[in-house]
Automatic annotation (TrEMBL), chains A, B:
<dbReference type="InterPro" id="IPR033749">
    <property type="entry name" value="Polyprenyl_synt_CS"/>
</dbReference>
<dbReference type="InterPro" id="IPR000092">
    <property type="entry name" value="Polyprenyl_synt"/>
</dbReference>
<keyword id="KW-0808">Transferase</keyword>
<dbReference type="GO" id="GO:0005737">
    <property type="term" value="C:cytoplasm"/>
</dbReference>
<protein>
    <submittedName>
        <fullName>Farnesyl-diphosphate synthase</fullName>
        <ecNumber>2.5.1.1</ecNumber>
        <ecNumber>2.5.1.10</ecNumber>
    </submittedName>
</protein>
<dbReference type="GO" id="GO:0004337">
    <property type="term" value="F:(2E,6E)-farnesyl diphosphate synthase activity"/>
</dbReference>
<dbReference type="GO" id="GO:0004161">
    <property type="term" value="F:dimethylallyltranstransferase activity"/>
</dbReference>
<dbReference type="InterPro" id="IPR008949">
    <property type="entry name" value="Isoprenoid_synthase_dom_sf"/>
</dbReference>
<dbReference type="InterPro" id="IPR053378">
    <property type="entry name" value="Prenyl_diphosphate_synthase"/>
</dbReference>
<keyword id="KW-0460">Magnesium</keyword>
<dbReference type="GO" id="GO:0046872">
    <property type="term" value="F:metal ion binding"/>
</dbReference>
<dbReference type="GO" id="GO:0016114">
    <property type="term" value="P:terpenoid biosynthetic process"/>
</dbReference>
<keyword id="KW-0414">Isoprene biosynthesis</keyword>
<comment type="similarity">
    <text>Belongs to the FPP/GGPP synthase family.</text>
</comment>
<dbReference type="Pfam" id="PF00348">
    <property type="entry name" value="polyprenyl_synt"/>
</dbReference>
<keyword id="KW-0479">Metal-binding</keyword>
Amino acid sequence: MNADFQGWLKNRQSQIESYLENRLPADNCAPERLHEAMRYVVLGGGKRIRPLLSFAAGELSGAEDESVVVAAAAVELIHAYSLVHDDLPCMDDDTLRRGKPTCHVKYDEATALLVGDSLQSLAFQLMAEFPLTDHPHKQLEMIKQLAQAAGSRGMAGGQAIDLASVGKLLTLPELEFMHIHKTGALIRAAVMLGARCGEGLNDEQLSHLDHFAKCIGLAFQVVDDVLDAEATTAALGKTAGKDAEQNKPTYVSILGVKQARELAEDLQKDAYRALDHLGVAAPRLLQVTDFIVQREF
Amino acid sequence: MNADFQGWLKNRQSQIESYLENRLPADNCAPERLHEAMRYVVLGGGKRIRPLLSFAAGELSGAEDESVVVAAAAVELIHAYSLVHDDLPCMDDDTLRRGKPTCHVKYDEATALLVGDSLQSLAFQLMAEFPLTDHPHKQLEMIKQLAQAAGSRGMAGGQAIDLASVGKLLTLPELEFMHIHKTGALIRAAVMLGARCGEGLNDEQLSHLDHFAKCIGLAFQVVDDVLDAEATTAALGKTAGKDAEQNKPTYVSILGVKQARELAEDLQKDAYRALDHLGVAAPRLLQVTDFIVQREF
């Protein structure tokens, strides 16, 4: 990783951290325990991959920093809420996340449920409260886009398909369909909302960017599956080997590790090609792409 | 109940029902089980008190029907999601709702979790997707208002306070604080969002309307507590006597039934007075108020 990118990464990670820190309700504000738990799950952890994508896409479209950070934070709050709910006993029943006890282990199940619910509300509050663009009509469209990405035909729907697939043999297209929803929809929203905070890209460019986002979303998941199969719990900060243990279909269970790695590289190349079509250099998005695909590989 | 109001009531209830019916994803659209469960919990039941308040407030401010029904549906979706999550074993652990098995009993806990999550997303999607007013800036403010009403300093926060209060002796002001959040915030949003779809009320009138909404929200809860203590499970369509069984503080446990009834009547009068201050007749809101306070009394 070159020094310039490393500096950018740290900078952007601390920017999103301090924005979230300021926007989350204080833990001395009632109900204190709920607010403390919301801060516990959101702050001080995570690679912030979705916000990084928003920032990189925002730079490309000439967006203002103060706008992109709002959209990036909203996407990250939706992501954080989904992790809290996914870790609950009735879902993946996980006890470790980002190297810390999961929310329902640290607090209790009811609190974890309400933490997730409240983080989702807060995401939409931020999207409506602060100006993302000079065009309120466009801001409404962006809120709709985030809601669709989060909902039953996006992330939550992907989670439902995931649950229904435990113990089943899926084909590669079926697995892809699941992940396009479960992780892909929100990653796509992260890229597109970041870009739409600016005015610098035309519709054709936005459509290439959308294709880039789809590729990168899938690549992210393929890498996740490889890491789950190969990395240690300590390195991941979450329980490793859960997929095989829970008999979940993954890219590794269908393709094996070698072919899964090759698929990730193919998707990475496909993402590069989509960026080529933009007609403008997108060095940050290229760097973030490599950062996503090559983590721990 | 007079015939005119009865006609209005049926009309509005069927209007919101058919709007929700059209906006909820079809149950033959993937993921089918999730969409079927979303429709199961939202459709075909409930008095639709919050939408009725939105409609009555919208009539007062000269709002278009096509706008008010969107806001009313969004509020009802937030309410429906909260019921599904509240009924989960880690919360109130209830098995009966609107005379039918609760979502996690009919389906399973994971599905109920995702149903609630998806209904919340859908509420914000509707608020952003369809025009509520001619002013997109105002629509953004309305989305913010709904998000605040739903979140950790609104409904979800009230639920957290409720959980923390089980088995405790609360004072009347503490109980009121809880309910202002738990049920009050969303009822207030129902009234105000309905009114704000139109342009007919000035800021002073809106502030009286807001006071009306606070009174009616509390009155609603007091009546709920009395009904829980006095009505049968069959009449309620949900398990009666749960509050006492779960050792929850209620208006009845603090005041007794007689004084709780008197409090409901006082709040009703306070609500009437707030409407008097509007300077325009608000016959529908008066009728809906009576409908809320006098149900089953």
